[in-house]
Design brief:
mainly alpha, 2 helices
Length: 79
């Protein structure tokens, strides 16, 4: 692959990581603002699942973001 395509791939990976962190942060806010009694039963299950797994998604998104940034730095140093 050419150097420019590595930079593009690293940029996309970085943006996916940032998007994941934003979605996780919004899920934390939504889970805290909504009372379980005010939503249908199928949403209650999803809210409990998100509350239990938010940390994992946040860490995974952070790792993807840092990996993308490192790949951007490496691609820029190679160019």
């Amino acid at each position: 692959m050419e150097s420019s395509s590595w930079v593009e791939v690293a940029g996309v990976v970085t943006w996916f990581g940032v998007l994941g962190m934003i979605v996780t942060a919004l899920a934390v806010v939504a889970v805290r603002l909504v009372r379980a009694q005010d939503v249908p039963a199928y949403v209650q299950g999803r809210a409990r699942w998100w509350a239990a797994h938010n940390v994992g998604f946040l860490v995974a998104s952070l790792v993807v973001t840092v990996g993308g940034i490192c790949a951007l730095m490496a691609a820029n140093l190679a160019a």
